[in-house]
Each structure stands twice: as structure tokens, then as C-alpha cells.
Amino acid sequence: ANTAPGTQTITFNIPGATPVTPAVITVASPLPNLTESVTIDATTQPGWDGRPVVGVRSPSSTTGWVGFFLDSSNITIRGLSISNFGQGILAFQTHFGHLIEHNYIGTDRSNTILGNGLGVQWRANTSTIRQNVISGNSGDGLVVLLGALANTIDNNKIGMGWNGITVVRNTGNGGAMYDGPTNNVFNDNLISGNTLWGVDLQHGPALAPVNGTVFRGNRIGLDANGDDAGNNSGGIRVQNAPNTLIGEPGQSRNVISGNGGPLPQNIGPGIHIVDAMSPMPLIRNNLIGLDPTGIAARSNNNKGIVLDGPASIGGGRRRQLHLRKW
């Protein structure tokens, strides 16, 4: 595919691969970087039933390898289980138009923890990461970094199995963003069961700010049934991330509940605003500490929102609170 002109499509027809006996391709050497537009489509494998029947993994002694290195634009990776690499997928900056969908990154159709060192490292632009299971990785599930602009992260399960019930935790954060990504959207994801934060925006103030991140319609800390699954450190952490929007009037609500692990180390707030930033974060139209019905309590270790910096909370343009700290 790297040498043929135009966008190529790689399809699969591996004899004997079925939902009962999936095929596992163990690569003998690092896969080449993808330097041309290509579609790698494992949903074409006979027996595909909505879950991967083809897996790609590295040998146990070569976990420093990258599974799929996207070093061009307009690349699609679809329908694979990707495991045991140093990084499952790495999308390089300046490229755009990728589609990553229906993959299990760090796990498989049986919800087994297989792991990568890091599930997905994302630096590309105007791309979509949707309907994946990004779970079971020994570090963060998804890291969005410098160069990432206007991507949509949609309807993924991060830290949970394909059924949305089984915890298949990432040992780090579910998602992490730092050093300059801009105008990225988390939409309708289930982000629960992770050892650290559901999503951690910015690890420290010395890096370029994370700007303009939007969260809408996500379930962070609960399972698909609305029961506690937690992210041990908390739901969403916002530091040096101006213009963050958590919830929008008229859009699907975020449900940020059930977070926090064993006390006292894991205080588990639903949302933690760490410091002052301008424009300040907006927190609107969410359910925090409740189940998706808004009736039953699902505590974030008794801390819904922790403010160590200013934020605008609740209401529309005319009705909102500008809170400094509590």
C-alpha cells in the first residue's frame, strides 16, 4: 500500500478465523510506517459479527514497537484487535482525515487484558476516533498531544470491555491531553474503570495549554447499566486548559459519577479545576454524582466539583455561577 498510487484497501480472508477461534497475527518485525493513504479493513473478514475476529500483536519481547504508525493523511484502521505493542496506534502531526473505528486496542472480543504500553497517541488533525474499545493498556488509553486539532472522539469505551459492564482498566488515565491540542471534542464516550483520571487535561503548567476541549454526552465513572465503575483519581481534571466546555445546554448531558478509589489517596472528585485559566472553564447541563436517570445517588467520593481555580457553573448566558474556590 505504501508504494501503490492512490488510496488502497486491505481486506481479510483468513481461513479458519471465526468468532470462536479468532485469528491472531503475531508480527515478526516492526510494521512499516503507513506513508500513503490506505484503508485496513478487518470487518471484511468472514465471521465478522461487530467484534474483531482478527488480532495483530507483537511478540512479548518487542513491546517497544508501534502497531500502526500513521505517517500520512486519510488512513482508516477498522475492525482489529491491536495488542502487546509499545503503542497500539500513533498518528503523527500535520496529517489529517483519519478514521479509527471498531478496533479493540489493548483487549479482545473476550474482554481479556492484553495491553499495549500506550493505547493510542494522537497528534493528527480533523480525524475521527469512534466506536473503539480502548482498554487494558498498561499506561494511558488515549493521549492527545501537540498538533492535534479539531478531532472527534466519539462513542468509544475507554477502560471498560465491549459490553460496557466489565472493567478492563487502563493502568494510567483513560484519556490524557497536554502540550497544545486544540478544539477537540469528546462525544458520547463511556470512560470508566481507569486507575487514574477518566480524562486528565494537562499534566503541568510548563507545557503549551490544552485549548477549547468540549465534553458532551459522555458517561464518566459509571458502567453501561449506570452502576459505579469509577476512575480512581476522579472524572475530569482541568489544569492550564482554557476554554474547556464540560456540558452544553441543548446537548446530551455528561454523567460524571461514581468516581474515586480507595481513600485517602484517591479523592475521586467528579471534576477538579486545578488553577486559574482564561477563558475559564464552563460546566453546564451535567449530572454529577447521580445515575443517568438523575434519581439515584452515585457519589464521586462525596466530592462533585473541586475548585482550586475559577469556573462558570450552571445555567445559560443569563443564569450561571462564577465560582472561585470551594
Brief synopsis:
With 326 residues, this protein is mainly beta. It is built from no helices and 31 strands.
Keywords:
0% helix, globular, 31 strands, 326 residues, 10-stranded parallel sheet, mainly beta, 12-stranded mixed sheet
Write the topology of this structure.
Layout: E1 8-10, E2 23-26, E3 38-41, E4 54-57, E5 66-70, E6 76-78, E7 81-83, E8 87-91, E9 99-101, E10 104-105, E11 118-122, E12 128-130, E13 133-134, E14 142-144, E15 152-154, E16 157-158, E17 175-177, E18 185-187, E19 190-191, E20 197-201, E21 214-216, E22 219-220, E23 234-238, E24 245-246, E25 255-256, E26 271-273, E27 282-283, E28 287-288, E29 305-307, E30 311-313, E31 321-323
Parallel strand pairs: 1-3, 2-4, 3-6, 4-7, 5-8, 6-9, 7-10, 8-11, 9-12, 10-13, 11-14, 12-15, 13-16, 14-17, 15-18, 16-19, 17-20, 18-21, 19-22, 20-23, 21-24, 22-25, 23-26, 24-27, 25-28, 26-29, 27-30
Antiparallel strand pairs: 30-31
Strand content: 25-35%
Poorly predicted runs of 5 or more residues: 316-326
User: Compute the gyration radius: what is it?
Assistant: 19 Å
Number of strands: 31
Largest sheet: 12 strands, mixed
So how many helices?
A: 0
Strand order of the largest sheet: 1-3-6-9-12-15-18-21-24-27-30-31
